[in-house]
Amino acid sequence: MYRYDDYDRALVKARVDQFRDQTARWQAGELADEEFRPLRLQNGLYMQRHAPMLRIAVPYGMISSAQLRVLGAIAREEDKGYAHFTTRHNLQYNWIPMDRVPDVLARLAEVEMHAIQTSGNCIRNTTTDQFAGIAPDEVVDTRPLAEIIRQWSTFHPEFAFLPRKFKIAVHGAERDRAVVQVHDIGLHLYRDDKGAVLARVWVGGGLGRTPILGEVINEALPWRHLLSYMEAIIRVYNLEGRRDNPYKARIKILVKALGIEEFRRKVDAEWANLKDGPATITDAELARVSAYFTAPAYAQLPDNDAGYEARIASDKAFARWVQQNVHAHRVPGYRAVTLSLKQKGFAPGDITDVQMDAVADLADAYSFGELRSSHEQNLVLSDVELRKLPELFDQAKALKVASSTVGLLTDIICCPGGDFCDLANAKSIPIAKAIMERFDDLDYLHDIGELDLNISGCMNACGHHHVGHIGVLGVDKNDEEWYQVTIGGRQGNDTRLGKVIGPSFAAADMPDVVTKLLETYVSLREPEERFVDTVVRVGLDPFKVSVYGDKANKKKEANNG
Amino acid sequence: MAEILKNGQVHSDNWQVLHPEADADLASVTVAAGQWLVPFALWQAQSALHSRQDIGVWLSANDDLNEVAKHFNQWPLLAIDFPKFTDGRGYSMAWRLRNHHQYTGELRAIGNVLVDQLFFMLRVGFDTLALDPKVSPEIALKNLTPFPDVYQGSTDNPDPLFRRTDRAGITHGGAQ
User: Rounded to an integer, what distance in angstroms lies between the CA atom of residue A333 and that of residue A386?
Assistant: First the structure.
C-alpha cells in the first residue's frame, strides 16, 4: 500500500500543528464558533449529540495492521473502547474530548493517517472497490490513481469552500462495487482495444434529499487528463453551483438545472485552457505511485486443498461462510475474505478495540499485514491462502467477525443515526438491531439469498437507503420517529433508486414489515430469483398489499377514481 | 481603513470600499474624493469615474469576467469581495482572472477575509489581502504559510509537486 515520503509526512504533520493552533485560537475566543466550524469539519470533527465525533480518513479503504492497532489503542485510551466504520471507508470515534483531538491527530500522523477533508464542503475521501488489485474481473487497479487524486485534492487552494461536499468514487472492474453513479464524480477506468487506460466520467450523482444518478459527461477520458478534467468540472461547479440553499447546493442540482449538454459545454470550455497543461499526470508519477501497489510475494499454490475441501464437506457453518464471505482472487490458491462487522447486538460497522488488535493480528498472519474497509461497513483480508481458510474461520469466529451473512439480509448498511448524529431525524441502529434479532436463522437468511438492506436516519442518506433492495429512511413526524420503506433499489452496474411503498411505520413495526416483504417475495419468486429481481418483475403492488392490506387497495382505488 | 497584508508584511493604505445600498441607483451614487474601490456595475454606470486615477473596482460573484477583462488597464487596483468566508467563488474568480484573462495588476481580497484562508488566497492569485477588521494582523502573519509544500499547482506555481521534485528518490521512515 502507499507509504508516505518526506513530503507527505511534512504536510500531515503541518496539518496537525495548524489544527492545534486553530483549536487554541478558538478556545481563546480569537475564532468564533462559526469561523472554527468549517476548519474543524475539514479535520473530520463534528459537534454531535453527546460529544464531538472524529472521522478518520482511510484513503480508498486501504489500512495496514499497524494502523489498525493504533486505531484500536486510540479507541481504548481516548474513547470508550470501540469505533465505527462508515460507508465511505472511514472510521469514526464518538467520545473523544475536543481538547484531546490534536494529540489524537498527532498520534495518527505517526502511522501515516489523518482526518483531512473527511467532512466539510470540500473534496472528500475518494472511495473505490474493496477488491481493487485482486478481483478477477478487474481491468485497471484503481488504487494508484485514487492516491494521485488524494494528493491533488488535499489542501486544494481553490476548492476548500465549495457550495457543498464533493465525493469522488472510482472503479476499474467489470462489475461496479463502488456505486460510482451516486457520487458527485464517478469514474470507471477501463482499457481501449490498444490497452490504454481511459475513464468513463459520470457527474452529478448523489443520494441525500434529492437522489439522482450521475450522467456520463465523458465516455473516454485518457487517464493522464483526470486531474485537469476534474479541475474543470469542479471550477464550473464552484462558480455556478447554488449557495442559497444547502439542500440544492450539490453539483447534481446544477447539472440537472443546466442539463448535461450545457454542463458539458461549460466544462469543455474550461478544460480547453487546462488540457495538456501542468496538471497532466506524467508517466513517471503514475509509475512512482503504482510501485506502492505491486502484488505481494504470493506463494505458488494449487487452486485447491484437501483439508479445505474436507472441512467444507463436514462443516456446514464453514461451508456457508465460504459461500458468503470468501471471494474469488486473481491468483490461484488465494481468496479474499470479508470479516463481517454485523454482529447481533452491535451497531453495523462497529468494532471494539480488542477486535481491532486481533483483526490486525489476523492480517499479519494471513494477509500480508493489510486490510480493506468496504462501503458495506465490513473489513476485508484481501490475500488469504485457500488452504488456511479453515484456521482463519475458527479464529475469526472466536472474534465474532465471522458472521456468514455477507450480502444477505442482515449485512445491513446503517448510519449512526439518532443515537449519535446531530443531523438525524430518527434512530437507525435500533432498527438494524431489531431486524438482526428477528432474522437470526441462518437457514432462512441463506434461503432468502442476496438482499441489501440499507438504513439511514435522515435524508442525508449516509446509510445509502435509496440503493438498498430494501431501503429504510428515518423521518420525523411531529417529533416522533417514523420509517419510510423503499424497495427495488440496487447498486452495481445497473444502479437504481428504490421506490417508496407507502406511508411510514413506527419503529416497533419494522421487523414485521420486513417479514411481510420477505413472505411476499418467497411466495412469488422464481427459482434463483433474487428479492430485487422479483420486485422488478412483479412490481410494487403485491408487496404493498402484503404490508398495508386493504388500505393499499383502497388507496389504489382512490387514486384510480 | 483595513490592515493590508502585502509581501508578508502589514501595511495600511487609503483605499476605501464603497458598498452602495442594495436598491441604490448606481448612476447617481456619489463617489467622494479619495481612493475608492467601487462595484464594477457602478463603475460601468458612471463614465465620469473612468478618468479618475483614484478609482479601483471590486467584483462580486455575479460579475462577468469577460466584461471585466476589457478594462484591466483602467484601474490601479482590482479586488474580489468575499461576502462570507465560506463563499469560495472568489478563489475560482481569482484563478480565472490570473490564468484565463492574464490579469497582472494588483488583486486584493476584501470582505470577510479571515486568518485560515489567507494561504489559499495567496495561492490562487491574490497579492494583497485586506483583513477583516476583527482579525489580528500579527496572528494573520504567523499563519500565512501553514504548510511547507503543496501537492497541486495553482496560480502561485502551476507545477504540481510531481513535476517539481523527484519523489521517487526519497526513502521511507516512520513507524510502520
Answer: 5
Chain B CB contacts of A159 below 8 Å: 88, 91
Tens of pLDDT, residues A95-126? 999 999 999 999 999 999 999 999 999 999 99
Q: Tell me the chain A residues in contact with residue B148 when contact means C-beta distances shorter than 8 Å.
A: 10-11, 14
Q: What is the CA radius of gyration of chain B?
A: 18
C-alpha cell at A143: 488504487
DSSP bridge pairs for A490? A496
Rounded to an integer, the average pLDDT of A147-171 is 98
**Taking each helix axis from N to C terminus, what angle separates A143-153 and A283-290, rounded to the nearest 10 degrees?**
110
- Number of Cβ within 10 Å of residue A384's Cβ equals 24
Q: Decide: B92 and A239 in contact? Cβ < 8 Å.
A: yes
Non-local CB neighbours of A509 within 8 Å, separated by 6+ positions: none
How far, in Å, CA of A210 to CA of A246, rounded?
12
Which of B136, B122, B90 is CA-nearest to residue B8? B122
| Share above pLDDT 90 across residues of chain A, in percent, rounded to a whole number | 91
Nearest to A520 by CA among A482, A552, A474, A497: A552
* pLDDT in the model for residue A552: 62
* Closest Cα in chain B, distance from residue A273 (Å): 7
Can you tell me the mean pLDDT for B99-110? Answer: 97
Provide the 10 A C-beta neighbour count for residue A219.
10
Report the DSSP beta bridge partners of residue B87. none
Q: Do A162 and B87 make contact, defined as CB atoms within 8 angstroms? A: no
Provide, as residue numbers in chain B, all residues whose Cβ is less than 8 Å from the Cβ of A278: 153, 158-160, 163
Q: For chain B, percent helix, then strand, then coil, each to nearest 5?
A: 35, 20, 50
Please tell me the total number of residues recorded for chain A in this structure: 561
pLDDT tens digits, residue range A263-276? 999 999 999 999 99
Instruction: Characterize the bridge pairing of strands B107-111 and B128-130.
Output: parallel
Q: What is the pLDDT of residues A488-505, one digit of tens each?
A: 999 988 899 999 999 999
A181 has a pLDDT exceeding 60: yes
Count how many pairs of residues, chain A against chain B, have C-beta atoms within 8 Å.
143
Q: What is the pLDDT of residue A52?
A: 87
A81/B125 Cα distance (integer angstroms): 47
Grid cell 477520458 is found at A221
Closest CA of chain A from B126, distance in Å: 12
Half-sphere exposure of residue A194, counting CA atoms within 13 Å on the CB side?
A: 3
User: Under 8 Å CB-to-CB from A264, ≥6 apart: which residues?
Assistant: A217, A218
Task: Report chain B residues whose CB lies below 8 A from the CB of A152.
Answer: 151-152, 160
Q: Which of A453, A487, A443 is nearest to A317 (CA)?
A: A443
Alpha helices (H) in chain B, listed in sequence order: 40-45, 65-68, 89-99, 118-124, 137-142, 161-164
Task: Cell 493504533: give the residue.
Answer: A70
Please state the pTM of the whole predicted model: 0.94
Q: Which residues contact A409 (CB under 8 A, 6 or more apart)?
A: A435, A439, A445, A448, A451, A453, A514, A518
A368 φψ region: left (φ > 0), alpha (ψ -120 to 50), beta (else): left
Q: Per-residue confidence at A187, pLDDT binned at 50, 70, 90?
A: very high
Do B43 and B49 meet the contact criterion of CB atoms below 8 Å apart? Answer: yes
Phi, psi of B56 (to 5 degrees): -115, 180
Amino acid (1-letter code) at residue A83: A
Q: Note the pLDDT of residue B167.
A: 85
For position B173, what pLDDT does the model report? 44
Q: Give the whole-angstrom CA distance, residue B60 versus residue B80.
A: 6
- What is the DSSP pairing of strand A197-203 with strand B128-130? unpaired
CA separation for the pair A555, A549 (Å, rounded): 11
